[in-house]
What does this fold into?
Amino acid sequence: MKTQYDFSNQVVMITGAGSGFGKLAAQRFAAAGAKLAICDINAASVNAVAEQLQAEGAEVMASACDVSSPEQVEAFVTACHQRFGRIDVGINNAGISHAKLRLHETDLDMWDSTINVNLKGVYLCMKHQLAGMVKQNSGAIVNISSAAGIMGAPFISVYSASKHGVIGLTKSAALEYGRKGIRVNAICPAFTLTPLVEATIASGTGKSRENLEAGNPMRRLGEMDEVVQAIMWAACDDNSFMNGAVIPIDGGLAAT
It folds into this structure.
């Protein structure tokens, strides 16, 4: 039986909510009673998620938002405050990966696009989320990093660098804002059966599922719900003394 959370009367902002972890998190937080502000670079995807949740009775605002754009992030957070008056929980999930290459084969375009979304995007969201949370003297932020953010990740070095950066932001903000009643933590999933990972396996452009599973101490890939349960645990009020934590959800991969 899964843990039941209660986010009634809390406003939860989720980026990258059109698919994967973000979409499932939106569904789970809505089921737990939260009011949702969700965004994604893909307007059609995030609007479809919002329509589904609204049909089930949730209060949701949705918008297209490129998290690498300072103007779009500020506008989205401002719209959230205008609609709901506050943000209690920020789930900074939007991210991209890149082709598997040795470091000398990468280029500045790959660097810029990956860093802009995965690191700059988290920075921009945190900057505006925290500004409101400071006035409230409360709040929780959960940043989605990666197992590649706490260990070396050959052939995805640029992605790994961006996710290490997310952890640096997480720990620094935890120290800066803890006295304001604001908690900032990071979740670090290893390979999980998201639509993106499943599509990559099916395409044959990366490692096979068997190879990925063989590299994990538990000899399997993660399930999306296992990661989303951790996100909700990190965000919930019951977990009120966890701050600055970096939490691997990786089957023990980081312990090897």
About this structure: The radius of gyration is 17 Å.
